[in-house]
Amino acid sequence: MRAALVKYAGSVELKTELSSHIKPVDIITKTKHGETLSQEEIFGWVNGITSGKVKDYQTSAWLMAVCLRQPPLSKDETVDLTLAMAASGKVLNLDVNEYHVAPQVLPKEGGIAYHEWFIEFSTEPTKVAEFAEVLDQQLQGKNSYYKDLRKGEMLDIIKITPIKIGGFNAYMKASGKLGGQNKLPRLANDRQLAEELAKFII
After folding, report:
1. Closest CA to 39 of 78, 12, 88
2. pLDDT score at 120
3. Which residues contact 108 (CB under 8 A, 6 or more apart)?
4. Does 181 score more than 80 pLDDT?
5. pLDDT exceeding 70 applies to what percent of the chain?
6. Distance between CA 58 and CA 61 in Å, rounded?
7. Domain map of the chain by residue range?
8. pLDDT of 49-84, one tens digit each?
9. Class of residue 5 by CB neighbours under 10 A (exposed 0-12, middle 13-18, buried 19+)
């Protein structure tokens, strides 16, 4: 399902085709009368909202119909709506095995400071730049101080440095820390560990 969802999320043509068949008044009416919406209708409806075809007042009318319906949504409708919302934006098919974050205060390439994320993915990443943008936006949404630093141009966008698969374990083994109660620190105030991890960069 995940692979299909990722493929769908990146298909503008399929999303446009689905939303083109949607008539907002029909979706609102079916919901108001307690009729079950199909997966195609729900995906088309969400695409219509994100594309602007479905207007705000129509979205409000549909939400009101959902609230007044008993039950509001069936289990299948809830699952389809969740999947449609997840696929409405960018979906990056990336699995993270391990990571470590270190500050880069004086970049060799010049410019302002940034946080460098050393990440081991389960498969070789192909969308590192997109992942960095999404992660940076999420960090700004979660941390107002970080957001202020980014907006004030005191910090640059995060940098993702991919590590070879098994690289973190190789580091722990080489340093005699593999197994037991030893854990790799996720965050650091210096670049001591970062310099060691640099040996395992892809």
Report:
1. 78
2. 92
3. none
4. no
5. 88
6. 5
7. 2-86, 96-200
8. 887 888 999 999 999 999 998 888 888 899 888 888
9. middle
| Global confidence as pTM | 0.60
Q: What is the C-alpha to C-alpha distance for residues 177 and 175, in angstroms, rounded to an integer? A: 6
Q: Which residue has the tokens 């990722």?
A: 6
Tokens 């410019």, located at residue? 111
Average pLDDT, the chain: 84
- Eight-state DSSP code of residue 4: H
Both tokens assigned to 202: 């892809």
SS3 assignment, position 78: helix
**Tokens at residue 110, please?**
């010049």
Query: Which architecture does CATH list for 2-86?
Result: Up-down Bundle (1.20)
Contacts by 165-171 with C-beta closer than 8 Å and gap 24+? 165/97, 165/120, 165/121, 165/122, 166/120, 167/120, 167/197, 167/200, 167/201, 168/97, 168/98, 168/100, 168/120, 168/197, 168/200, 170/200, 171/196, 171/197, 171/199, 171/200
Place of tokens 């939400």: 63
